[in-house]
Amino acid sequence: MATRSLADLDVFDNGAPWDLFAELRANDPVNWSDETDGGSGFWSVMRYHDIVKVLRDPETFTSSHFTNLEELEPDQEEARRSLLDSDGTRHRALRRLLQNDFTPNNVAKYETFLRGLTATTLDNAFAKGEFDFLHDVAADYPIRVLARLLEIPDTDIENIIRWGNAMIGSSDPSLTDLLPTDPESEKYRLVPFRSPAALEVFAYGDELKRQRLGRNGTDIISTMINSVPMDGKPLTDQEYHTNFLLLIVAGHETTRQTIAHTMNNLMNNPEVIAYLQENPQDIPWAVEEFLRYASPIYHFRRTATKDVEFGGKEIKAGQKVVTWFASGNRDPEVFADPEKMIPTRMPNEHMTFGRGGPHMCLGNALARIELIIMFEDVIRRIDKMERTGPMDFVHSNFIHGIKSMPVKVTLR
């Protein structure tokens, strides 16, 4: 039985504890973790097929009591609720409002822009010879894509990166000035992540709203504020705030982590680089393996709506049920040689974007085209890339995050 706890953030300080995931999958696939930060503990679901069952049963395992581990009072839930933390009719209406901007056909319109942006990003980084891949490539690229989608100026990009770091890295003292466990955070209890950065995001979103309200813009913000969801209920100020914040955070954070992890994984598997240089037509399919192998989000939480027997365990109504996507992506019952990076793996029904259910990642088509274009260019150009120092990981059991990744590159 595992002695390390999935509730202990220190377990994640050197990246994903793949060995612990494997141990739990094999010996205790639905297991309980006590929390020491005031939380009431949670059930963890480790196996792929069990995770899918949870995701596809929102009546038993709801998102409406939030999808991270923090336990909220009813007033906090209502104040912080976004698309991610909704179920039922309102969730479907909000999702429908935004989904047209993220269809494969719509994101394909950005291909020329993405190829130009990729080339510029890599030109600037590679010209240095030695650089921080996380900062100069992985962070720079998707945030500029987001800026284009939201039609916001490049001069605002540094602020958006800073806000995203502070919120996603809210458990990491090097990324935030105020940890959620600090009593001082109580004054921010009604905003996402208990983070003062959320208030800055709200104020920024309000200024964009003021500029675009009542006009005929076609950007995502204009759609949010000038359209009525299909249930006939206009977005409230609270819904605009939290869903704008969700776009700001989710719109670049997971993609940048996938890019960084993928480059690290390719450096660890140079034979994959060599194969894809000889077979560049396989890169669009190899991206599915990049996504599986990276697993940029460790988990999403659900909450049991009733007492239920699951995986041989008795789960009580109100208990937290955590689906470990990163573990599911390495489940040997689904993926042969799961610890091996196989660019031609087929089928490859990874769960990096979820796996069915109402909360399948809205931006998956955009993320895929960003990754395809980035790695077509990277793999075409490099002879070798190697780390020049240790990697620094985010102190978190939610985001599988890299904070720095110093490298040097030799071009072909």
Q: Care to describe what's here?
A:
Helix 6 crosses helix 16 and helix 12 (253-268) packs across helix 14. This protein is of the alpha+beta class. The model has no long low-confidence stretch (mean pLDDT 93). It contains 16 helices and 12 strands. A hairpin with an 8-residue loop joins strand 1 and strand 2. It has a single domain (9-411), classed as Cytochrome p450 (Orthogonal Bundle). The longest helix has 18 residues, at 133-150.
Primary descriptors:
16 helices, five-stranded mixed β-sheet, 45% helix, single chain, 412 residues, alpha+beta, Cytochrome p450, three-stranded antiparallel β-sheet
Using the coordinates above, name the CATH class: Mainly Alpha
In N-to-C order, the SSE pattern is HEEHEHHHHEHHHHHHHHEEEEHHEEEE
Structure annotation, total helices: 16
- What's the CATH H-level homologous superfamily? Cytochrome P450
What are the segments in which pLDDT stays under 50 over at least 5 consecutive residues?
none
Please identify, by name, the CATH architecture. Answer: Orthogonal Bundle
Radius of gyration over alpha carbons? 21 Å
Give the termini separation. Answer: 48 Å
Mean pLDDT: 93
- The number of distinct β-strands equals 12
- Number of folding domains? 1
The main sheet comes to: 5 strands, mixed
- Note the overall shape: globular
> Widest sheet: strand order?
1-2-8-5-3
Approximately how much beta-strand content do the residues carry?
5-15%
Structural class: alpha+beta
Overall helicity: 40-55%
- Would you tell me which CATH topology applies? Cytochrome p450
